[in-house]
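Box 3.1 A note on notation
Throughout this textbook, protein chains are presented in two layers. The first layer is the amino acid sequence; the second is a token string describing backbone geometry. Keep the layers aligned when reading.
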Amino acid sequence: MKILALVLAGGCGSRLHPLTAEHAKPALPFVNGYRIVDFVLSNLLNSGITSIYVLAQYKPQSLVEHIRTAWAPALHGTGCFVRIVLPGSDPARGPFLGTADAVHKNLHLCARHAPDVVAVFAADHVYRMDVGQMLEAHVKSNAQVSVAAIPVPIEWASHFGIITTHSDGRIREFQEKPKRPAPIPERPDHAYASMGNYLFEPNTLSALLEQAARRGETDFGRHVLPRATRTQRVFAYDFTGNRVPGTAPHEEPNYWRDIGTIEAYRAAQRDASGPRPRFSLVNERWPLGACAHRASAATVAAAY
């Protein structure tokens, strides 16, 4: 199965100021020389997804330099690529006005590659994920759209897109950063939050984005996904069932953090440090960084 990945890396990260005064949030240094964007890129490549475009906009220079120096040389000649796309590369399309608008203005990449599935993933989270397992659930449910989701404490939930589902996982409602988030029925102290990672059937993605553009709508969470749940087969993928090889027993299972504030950024750095970290950056079976290209795309292709 052919998958094209579009990584959303254009936000300004206002809640991380002054750290983002000179850097895009995905380009912020993390621990041991890594940057936040390395997590999504490593997950995609380890999952056998070899065609990746990074859609950037705000303060892109350090992000561009990181991709150019840390990723491009290692991937040269491997059949994998990670390429930066800036709005200025085609002035006729103008700046990216939001997450959905950024993808809409780059739908020509989907036409060029003709994938079976388009992965639209956020660039500003710290986690480890086998995207192949999400793809398997996407195919099994005959979904047109799949949204990776994870339970979060109810007191944090207003910072996320919140999902309610039917018993089969089909999304009933998607609310972007609601003031009164709906709790999980069997876990009233938690809500089901979108991770900002989506899989789309290509024709569905194109139709949804064309409709959004006609309405002047620009964002996946605020506009596209709430509307899609009423017209398309949109399913939640439960990240708590994702299993990545090489995870140590002392690590927090299914660790995922949205690096949205300075406090969250510092906490994630602490979680990745020390002799028994909650989230280890060392995993020989799921490497972090440009060596992730060693994962075989044939493994995913054989499975699906």
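The chain has nine helices and eleven strands. The two ends are 6 Å apart (CA to CA).
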